[in-house]
Specification:
Number of domains of chain A: 2
Largest sheet of chain A: 8 strands, mixed
CATH class of the largest domain in chain A: Alpha Beta
Shape of chain A: globular
Strand order of the largest sheet of chain A: 2-9-8-7-6-3-4-5
Structural class of chain A: alpha/beta
CATH topology of the largest domain in chain A: Aspartate Aminotransferase, domain 2
Largest interface: A-B, 83 and 84 residues
Oligomer: homodimer
CATH architecture of the largest domain in chain A: 3-Layer(aba) Sandwich
Helix content of chain A: 40-55%
Number of strands of chain A: 14
Distance between the termini of chain A: 55 Å
């Protein structure tokens, strides 16, 4: 049977993941600053083994059964307790999801008809753009600087009546920018004024290396913000557990959307993660992971300082996993990737993070996965390549 | 913020799960034949504990990392080996999913535009109808008898140009009917003739109590059938691992749809299930589970024979978890459920399994979860109720 004329409009909007095609072209021995994956060494294997061995058989059977779509109640109560007291969050506001990717998918399902607009920061998470595109979203870009989204650009976007704003205030993927409090407050105020909800995607919030935590958009606007968090970066992405916190009316629709998608998240991995959140283990784990990436970031910034020509612009990120680089405008980072891959070094071209055609001269480097030696050698290769093309 | 005028057409098509509302109204002490959940006692707790303790730390870290969307390769190879040799299935045809519910969702995403038709057996899985409705599906019902879908009704449905056929040939939910080989061949032949693919949903295939296995639709038509299987009924639904097997062109689109939905299934639970599929454990487990439900079925059929008035029609299912009952036509099983719940006995009214308004006098009884004593007492209560209303 020939399937090609059977597919839906949504299917025809789905593209194979662009970052994956970079992985597919890597030769053995390539040093990769491309993936946003956590480091293997941070996964708490011993804790999981001990928790499994210690688990009461009856509790384990419960975790292996179907559960309610909303998720394991003690985990939802734990999530609610993590949210600021002022938000009056309870387990009723919490939906357990398989990670922040699913938050974006469920928001698309609940809010978007084909042709609806979504306001997104420029640049933003490429997987978010792909998923929202499947729902037929048209994007309105919001300009950013080193302190986050520009309020005047937010307002201009809201005047185009988007269905929601999608943003990553903490250590934005891909730029690593930490949105300042004044900007966060301005975005929430504008969202209220224009009655446009916000999806706050927060996979990196715990990975702060400098300064005090800034209030989340949800803390500033629990009436208009859907917050997405995850265990993927600080614990293990392979467990597929994250959470949404939302105003009740939105949360109920998101739960129905989750139910029609896949019924529920694994009760088994939810149970193991809830266990890890007890007796202070998760806080110790987060402190370890944060320390690890802090060292990684410092290694990378030292290498960049040492090897990159002065024409390459970058900002030291105060959190997260990424450094965003701008090459001189005449240089196309997508074209340059071909040569980089030939020289066994990989990064993600910045254009992938834009809904529009922008960012040709930008690229994202991840410091999460490479060893100290790889960081040094990889940045040396990249610095040489940049110096050659800048001339 | 008032969200009510923000929701998408899809969101407005989502209804809270009807079966759940039955659970919500149950008083303590209710004997329930409603849920299609596996029995807690069948979950292999000891095996999981042993496999976790024995897992190599490096393998465990790999399972906790992000994986490719397609799933854990050894598991996909194992799935491919389970399919008939004649189908020439390889790991390239396999997409790991979180369960059969997700198969339905991904098929909706890949094949349906709002208003497209889907041909479904009448009755069929209520969760399938809900999920496909979210995509704006219009249903064309296919009439069934005790041997499955009627070929003339399949052909009439195909003449209305549905995007695909959705069916459960093995021990159909809710009727327990096992489609005979001739009917299966006829459905595949017609699907080819009309160029309409089939989604074959097979959660219950391993739970056969009588007769030899019948060829799957996928075995008969690997070019036109998307097959969905799961570990949920024979191992543990809380692990959220199932699989799709599909012609390459369809599989690639289904993989992209999975990627935009939730990236991947838990690598951790995939790894544990792959381990369970080694050294004959899974076959032993399936034999145990099958034996357990066989005994449960027999207890239920004995109780029905003993307590139900002769006006109630039913067929002894040769597999699965359900008995389908027909009351005299004048009796409405949905209305009767109110009285049943007052008397602390629960079932699922048959209308929920129809896309149309049919089946008012039908109901589904599950024998998966109740104890022997509950089966006896529950059927006695139900039999008395039926006798009263039949008069």
């Amino acid at each position: 049977m020939n399937f090609s004329n059977h597919f839906s409009d949504a299917a025809n909007r789905m593209q194979p993941a662009a970052i994956r095609s970079i992985f597919n072209r890597m030769q053995p021995g390539t040093i990769s600053f491309a993936p946003g994956m956590p480091a293997f060494s941070t996964f708490p294997v011993e804790r999981i083994k001990a928790a499994t061995a210690a688990m009461d058989d009856e509790a384990m059977r419960q975790s292996m059964q179907y559960t309610v779509t909303e998720g394991y109640l003690p985990l939802r109560e734990w999530v609610a307790r993590q949210m600021p007291v002022s938000t009056a969050t309870t387990a009723d506001n919490v939906q357990v999801i398989s990670g922040c990717q699913q938050a974006i998918d469920l928001m698309g399902r609940v809010f978007l008809n084909p042709g609806d607009k979504v306001a997104v920061s420029a640049p933003t998470y490429t997987g978010g753009l792909s998923t929202l595109s499947v729902y037929g979203a048209e994007f309105v870009e919001i300009a950013c600087d080193d302190e986050g989204m520009l309020p005047e650009s937010v307002e201009a976007a809201l005047q185009q009546s988007p269905k929601f704003i999608y943003c990553i205030p903490n250590f934005m993927n891909p730029t690593g920018v930490d949105m300042c409090l004044e900007r966060r407050q301005a975005v929430v105020d504008l969202a209220r004024q224009y009655e446009v909800p916000i999806l706050e995607d927060d996979p990196y919030g715990e990975l702060r290396y400098k300064g005090d935590p800034v209030a989340s958009l949800y803390e500033l606007g629990p009436d208009c913000v859907v917050y997405a968090g995850t265990f993927s970066k600080v614990f293990a992405p392979g467990f597929r557990v994250g959470w949404l916190v939302a105003p009740i009316e939105a949360k109920e629709r998101l739960t129905r959307a989750k139910q029609t998608s896949d019924l529920q998240v694994s009760g088994y991995t939810q149970r193991l993660l809830f266990d890890a959140a007890q007796d202070g283990f998760l806080q110790e784990q987060i402190a370890r992971v944060r320390g690890y990436y802090y060292d990684q970031r410092n290694l990378m910034m030292e290498g960049i300082d040492q090897y990159f020509p002065p024409e390459v612009n970058y900002v030291t990120p105060s959190g997260g996993m990424f450094v965003w680089c701008e090459l001189p405008e005449r240089i196309d980072a997508t074209e340059l990737l071909e040569t980089a891959l030939d020289r066994k070094i990989a990064y993600v071209p910045g254009t992938l993070f834009y809904a529009s055609d922008s960012g040709k001269n930008t690229l994202r480097l991840s410091f999460s996965l490479a060893s100290a030696q790889e960081i040094d050698e990889g940045l040396k290769r990249l610095g040489n390549l940049f110096a050659e093309v800048i001339g």
